[in-house]
Design a protein that fits this description.
three-stranded antiparallel beta sheet; Hypothetical Oxidoreductase Yiak, Chain: A, domain 1; Ribosomal Protein S8, Chain: A, domain 1; seven-stranded mixed beta sheet; about 15% strand; 11 helices; 2 domains; homodimer; alpha+beta; about 40% helix
Chain lengths: ~325, ~325
């Protein structure tokens, strides 16, 4: 895997996006989102998403310009038709609007339909927290997760992220309601490495540790019945609020041809907050259990990885880096 | 265990609460909350809480009359000082206020400090959903859960509940972010039954299956690092919004002498909603995995148990039922 300077990764992403017809501001935001995930070690939400995005623009199922249509249905509620705009462009415009509204209302939410993949939710939670507000973020996805006690993928990986200022810095957590990501399943399959038991089912709905079989099957909800209940609740809430597709009808973030019809939800809370940084310090000082070297605070490992990547460069998977170079070369050809 | 008609359990709870100085409307709400949990099979949040509540009133750490002081800090944000009022009385007054506000604002939240234990969050989610709105509910608790990779109880069991109308009925899920409840640990200890591995640590922070040792130790977050991240995020968010106590400083729902200093948060969303009942039907029709008889919808088993309890009576633990009869007898003596 090549160690690529962040500036070089950034520059190549910009070139590819610009050549695909993405305006500079939109390109910068989309690039920041993908690079941020890549640098935090979440490659599944990183630069490997870029080639598909370019294909989607070429296929006419992604509009690189629009930031979505806004419709305030109540003083605290923004409904957004993403108009197949770029995920971070639609999401950030919506968050900017509800953050401004929350300054007077205290709380405001954005319910978004028809946006492209909005990427790692923690990206937005980090930014809102850094601006002194709280964000609760949700998103749905294609059906990849089996209901607890079921055999087939029926529910999205449906992540939640929460960000808030702590009084000294920020706290941010971001987790899918699936036990692993389908990206990790593909990664295991590509490397021929088996999955741990209990993570996935094959296409017939039987437990498997064969990652190649799991690709056509379903991954488990995290934490059994509880994670299933959470993931399902998020999907029902987001679908009810947006009128988006649900379950196996959700399409458009894992293919290059279908419009995106999943849902996203952001809730911004703008209030005077009591400091909680001291409690995080207490947690860091706790004695670790056997097999652990420390008690970790969610989000901090990713932040440390990002800091190091900015200094030392980003380890990018060979296949992803080669693909980006190919795309950048074609971009040059078109320009010439 | 005696099978007690619901009307008889209701009547005895009313008598005990009234004798303790609880006004009739407040007594009815407190009784409904405890009976609802009892009937749904959640005995840990049921009638066994009643004797402690009476002690707390007698000890002057619970005010049986107040419904809390309301302070709108923004059009969408209600801060509530629970003034040590009864949990469901403070919670329901707050929910009524924000539900009315959400009708015009679209979304409103209540951040509550200093209320007694508010009981099963699903009770409120059910009622709000039945009234055609969405509720997201959170609460913190005494530190009973160890951080992932830690040895000591530092974090509450911090439940979340989500309720919404589905177009045909309601959906409600309610789960703690701990893998089991401390009530279940006590129940295992009382019956001398070991816990499954991975559920708890002893007082030294070592894994144990001995429920008696686990009582003085810590229970695990559900789903490992992910459940820890969720539970911690909820506790930070609620503490930041309410200025309540955090971590091991939280007191008052498991003792009879300390004021309650945990936090509660309700978010009500009032919008036109797309129907999602059809998707729940699809889930119910899914083929079950090996070892399961059906794919279940969260909340439905509890609802069915409640329906049967209303018809056939409620199975109440001997020790709880005897204690209630004692309390009711003393109540009569006082009256005479």
């Amino acid at each position: 895997m090549p160690l690529v300077p962040a500036s070089q990764a950034s520059e190549i992403a910009d070139r590819i996006l610009t050549a695909a017809g993405v305006p500079p501001d939109n390109a910068a935001l989309q690039r920041d989102l993908l690079l941020d995930a890549e640098m935090r070690g979440i490659a599944s939400h990183g630069l490997l998403r870029l080639p598909r995005l370019v294909e989607r623009i070429a296929n006419g199922v992604c509009d690189p310009v629009t930031s979505g249509r806004h419709d305030w249905t109540a003083p605290g509620v923004l409904r957004v038709d993403g108009q197949q705009g770029l995920g971070p462009v639609v999401a950030q415009a919506a968050i900017d609007a509800i953050a401004a509204r929350a300054a007077s209302q205290g709380v405001a939410l954005a319910a978004i339909a028809n946006a492209q993949h909005i990427g790692m939710l923690g990206f937005y939670a980090d930014r809102v927290a850094a601006a002194g507000k709280c964000l609760i973020a949700f998103s749905t996805s294609e059906a990849l997760v089996h209901p607890w006690g079921g055999r087939r993928a029926m529910i999205g990986t449906n992540p939640i992220a929460i960000g808030l200022p702590t009084g000294e810095g920020i706290f941010m957590m971001d987790t899918a309601t699936s036990i692993i990501s389908m990206g990790e399943v593909h990664d295991h399959a590509n490397r021929g490495v088996p999955l741990a038991p209990g993570l996935a089912l094959d296409a017939e709905g039987n437990p498997t540790t064969d990652a190649a079989l799991a690709r056509d099957g379903a991954i488990a909800p995290f934490g059994g019945a509880k994670g299933y209940a959470l993931g399902l609740a998020f999907e029902l809430l987001l679908t009810a609020l947006t009128g988006s597709a649900i379950g196996r009808e959700v399409k458009g973030t894992l293919d290059s041809t279908e419009p995106c019809n999943k849902a996203d939800l952001f809730i911004v809370i703008d209030q005077d907050l009591a400091p909680v940084a001291g409690f995080l310090d207490l947690l860091r000082r706790e004695a670790p259990a056997a097999g652990f070297s420390e008690v970790r605070i969610p989000g901090e490992r990713g932040r440390e990885l990002r800091r190091r990547a900015l200094e030392d460069g980003i380890l990018i998977a060979d296949v992803t880096w080669l693909r980006l170079q190919d795309l950048a070369a074609s971009a040059e050809t078109i320009k010439d």
